[in-house]
Write a structure and sequence with these properties.
Blueprint: H1 2-19, E1 25-28, E2 31-35, E3 40-46, E4 50-56, E5 62-64, E6 69-74, E7 85-90, E8 96-100, E9 102-106, E10 111-116, E11 123-124, E12 129-138, E13 144-150, E14 153-159, E15 169-177, E16 187-194, E17 206-208, E18 212-213, E19 216-222, E20 227-232, E21 238-241, E22 244-247, E23 251-256, E24 268-271, E25 277-285, E26 288-298
Parallel strand pairs: 2-9, 11-19, 20-26
Antiparallel strand pairs: 1-3, 3-6, 4-5, 4-7, 7-8, 10-12, 12-15, 13-14, 13-16, 16-17, 16-18, 19-22, 21-24, 23-25, 25-26
The structure holds 2-acetamido-2-deoxy-beta-D-glucopyranose (4 copies).
Pfam families: Ig_3
InterPro entries: ICAM_VCAM, Ig-like_dom, Ig-like_dom_sf, Ig-like_fold, Ig_sub
Keywords: Signal
Length: about 300
């Protein structure tokens, strides 16, 4: 008799779905976003008299035969595959229906790390490198966006919306960079952000990696022209500035066509006693060397 009754209800319910009739059950809220281990309460309300109203669930199952409302309540939600369903059995048609809770259980990652995937030490201009961002134990991964930053600028993002697992997983993203000297000293970061919609926590939870400092080796180069002509005025101090940019920091050496006291290995020479002639400075590091000439002329006579 019991069995017959159930089968009849099921048949009727299939019919009610087909006819698209109102379920008369409402979940409040209808979508919940819960952090791993956090409490959750959802109430299921019926808009007409019920024989039984209840929650079908591995944890927090409950039912009532008196009230038009029943709560699904868990103090600490840690069950990844929980799919609570509220069901109602009614006196009138449709005799039974159910409403599935849209439940998102999330967990922020244990760690977000950034590293250089195929390389250690300083980078070399004109070579490509892979940066790797590794995210441990995040769920649900389909709501994750991995954002890559160079300084404060977002340079790339990676979304995982095509993945389906609800349980925590490990994911990673690779950024290909071809550093130039402008990247020397740049900091790269990777941010794992879970964007779970308006029901989710605001602002959306995110974890940022430690920065990866990029050091780029490049040969010396001068900001000023490679040859400079300096007019010599009697008693005036002359400055020969050979400062070059480069990484590692360039070393300097000087040579002169004029017989001169020993010249220092400094980027800048200052003196009131230069003799006319050509002074050559060489800035070098392990990436290369570059020379610069200073031509010191006596001021034309007859002025
Ligand atoms: C790192 O990997 C990228 C892509 O595979 C490659 O183009 C690059 O040459 C590699 N860099 C080094 C230093 O091995
Ligand atoms: C991801 O990058 C695309 C362009 O590459 C941009 O349009 C989009 O807004 C970015 N998404 C996020 C979440 O930042
Ligand atoms: C990266 O650079 C920042 C600032 O330039 C510095 O404070 C930090 O110690 C550096 N980190 C590493 C790992 O070198
Ligand atoms: C030398 O030149 C560099 C840039 O070319 C500049 O930053 C520096 O201040 C100059 N030094 C002197 C002493 O003029």
């Amino acid at each position: 008799m019991e069995n017959y009754f159930l089968r009849w209800i099921l048949k009727l319910c299939m019919l009610c779905t087909v006819l698209g009739e109102e379920c008369s059950l409402e979940l409040k809220p209808s979508r919940v976003v819960v952090g791993f281990g956090e409490p959750v309460t959802v109430s299921c309300e019926a808009s007409r008299p019920v024989r039984v109203l209840g929650w079908e669930s591995a944890i927090g199952a409950a039912h009532t035969q008196q009230d038009r409302s029943v709560q699904w309540k868990v103090d600490s939600l840690i069950d990844w595959i929980e799919e609570p369903i509220c069901y109602g059995v009614f006196f009138t048609a449709p005799r039974q229906c159910e409403e599935k809770l849209n439940l998102i259980l999330y967990k922020t990652p244990d760690s977000v790390t950034i590293s250089s995937a195929n390389h250690t030490g300083p980078m070399v201009e004109g070579t490509e490198y892979q940066l790797l961002c590794d995210v441990q134990n995040i769920a649900p991964v389909q709501y994750l966006t991995l954002k890559w930053y160079r300084g404060k600028t977002e340079v790339y993002n990676h979304s995982f919306s095509d993945l389906t697992p609800v349980t925590p997983v490990q994911v990673s993203s690779i950024l290909l960079i071809a550093p130039t000297q402008a990247d020397d000293g740049a900091q790269y970061r990777c941010v794992a952000q879970l964007e779970m919609g308006p029901e989710g926590p605001q602002p959306s939870p995110s974890v940022t990696s430690e920065p990866l400092n990029v050091s780029v080796h490049y040969p010396p180069s001068f900001l000023s022209p490679d040859t400079e002509t300096v007019d010599m005025g009697l008693g005036y101090e002359i400055t020969l500035n050979c400062t070059a940019t480069g990484n590692p920091t360039p070393l300097y050496s000087w040579a002169s066509s004029a017989p001169q006291e020993k010249m220092e290995d400094q980027p800048v020479l200052t003196s009131s006693y230069f003799l006319p002639g050509t002074y050559t400075c060489i800035a070098s590091n392990k990436m290369g060397k570059k020379s610069k000439q200073f031509i010191i002329k006596t001021k034309s006579k007859g002025v």
